[in-house]
Amino acid sequence: MFLLACGNRGAEWMPGRFSRGWPIHERGEFQIFGSPRTTYLPRNTGTRWPQFPGRRMPRVEPKDSGCSLIAISLEPKDYSDWVSRGGGSFRIVTPEDQHPLDGVSGLLLTGGQDVSPDRYGEPNRYCVRVNPERDDFEIGLLRTAFRQDLPVLAICRGMQLLVVALGGTLYQDLGRELLKDRKASPTIGHRGSGHTDTTHEIKIQSGTRLAGLIGQETILVNSHHHQGIRSLANNLLIAARSLDGLIEAVESPARRFVLGLQWHPERWQDNSSARIMKAFLAACSEVAAPQCADSL
Questions:
Q1: Is residue 2 part of a domain?
Q2: Which of 24, 30, 45, 206 is the most buried (most CB within 10 A)?
Q3: For residue 264, what is the enclosing H or E element?
Q4: Bond before 62 cis per omega within 30 degrees
Q5: Residue 179 CA to chain centroid, in angstroms?
């Protein structure tokens, strides 16, 4: 997860050519769980929550400065606004691009359909919508980004794909598999009702990059996903967990900047979201500086 965010929103949220060009492989409904104390936030209404209730934010058209660019995979809505609010420029990249990361200084992987479970060696038990073609494209983006040492920021499905691409595994459905793994019901909700986000707290691991840029031990995040990280590859560290122990953020200390977040900072205009984008753009500027010098 819906705004290309993990879960059951699929091709209808992929603009124009994307929805026509890629088949969406569907399965039956998955289990939705939550807490009676869960707070739900409206989504995809054109309003940013919770800072500006009732205020519509203008759409931002893609802009390309020709030097420092963030490649955004597939879905510009909200993500491009987030980059623009931070002072960055962006390019939407699609499978139609022959060299999608040429000339860019960072990669932003967006949310979307479930990662196909055959990517981590499992049959499809609870995935609702999978898109193997998109998996192929975005894993290719990750390989290129790693080869070029580009900063990577991965959101929701993006984080899950990052983990799987490096050898980790997922819970196909938290309501079923997290319960079985821990022999207890999840204590918080990770998915809202319908097209809404839910909110819950996460605890940030001390000593991580995320802890340094957020400056708080716990923060409130917005959440809308039915899958989650089961196991990590050895080259990633856990940067945050929710209060029920689910992994909420990962990072790679061995690389310039690789950060995965399970929540949706692009939909909030809070300090934490702004700091995350500022840190990402700062890392991207290190890549862009020599590119700009070479173009003079």
A1: no
A2: 30
A3: none
A4: no
A5: 24
Structure tokens at 41: 């936030």
pLDDT tens, residue by residue, 128-167: 788 999 999 999 999 999 999 999 999 999 999 999 999 9
Q: pLDDT value at position 190?
A: 53
Residue identified by tokens 């977040």 is: 261
Q: Which domain holds residue 48?
A: 11-295
**pTM (2 decimals)?**
0.74
Catalytic site residue from 156, 177, 200, 226: 156
Would you state the structure tokens that stand for residue 18, as one six-digit string?
């994307």
> For this structure, is 26 an active site residue?
no
Helices (H), the chain: 17-21, 79-85, 132-147, 157-165, 179-182, 209-214, 271-295
The one catalytic residue in 224, 248, 266, 284 is 266
Question: Is residue 89 in a domain?
Answer: yes
196's CB contacts (< 8 A; 6+ apart) are: 40, 41, 42, 43, 224
CA angle 116–117–120, rounded 5-degree value: 120
Active site residue 264: yes
Q: How far, rounded to the nearest angstrom, does the alpha carbon of residue 98 sit from its chain's CA centroid?
A: 24
Range in 45-49, 104-108, 130-134 with the lowest mean pLDDT: 45-49
Where does 122-270 have alpha helices with state H?
Answer: 132-147, 157-165, 179-182, 209-214
CATH number of the domain where residue 42 is located: 3.40.50.880
The domain total for the chain is 1
127 among known catalytic residues = no
Judge whether 1 lies within some domain. no
Token digits for 26? 């569907």
In a domain, 43, yes or no: yes
The Cα–Cα gap between 123 and 126 comes to 9
Q: Exposed, middle or buried: residue 237 (CB in 10 Å: 0-12, 13-18, 19+)?
A: middle
